[in-house]
Design brief:
Length: 163
Amino acid sequence: MSVVVWVCAVLIAVGAGLAIVRAERGPSMLDRTIALDVVLTALIAAVALYAAAERRADVVPVLVVLSLVGFVGSVSIARFAAVEPEGEGRVLTREEAAEQKAEQEAERAAAELAEAGLWEDQAEVDLPEDQAEVDLPEEPAEVDPPDDPAPDQRPGPAPEETR
């Protein structure tokens, strides 16, 4: 029986180790949550393996408590992740953070140009090389009103009814 216990212990340890790697790499909060759930499940399995190998029934309450902690933690994180805006749960790399900052600065520069009235006159803005590819927003197109509105939409008094 000791061979079976050792094989199970190694498999549980490998699973927990891979889950820790997934928790460290992410990329999103939900990936990390599931990885930590797997680590907790591996811990529960290890305690259950110990209880079975040593024939100890007094650790069953520990298993119940660990299971409840895992459940409550998962539900709590899922509750908060459900209302989280898109992309917020993801930890950005340095390159992604720099790109996002460059986009925000380009948008701010475009807004300043639009306020100063230079939007149409200035065709090209000198930007650093990493910001040169950012597309600036276009101005909204003007919409012409219809030539002849429907009779009930014409301004002025309503036509008199004929008797």
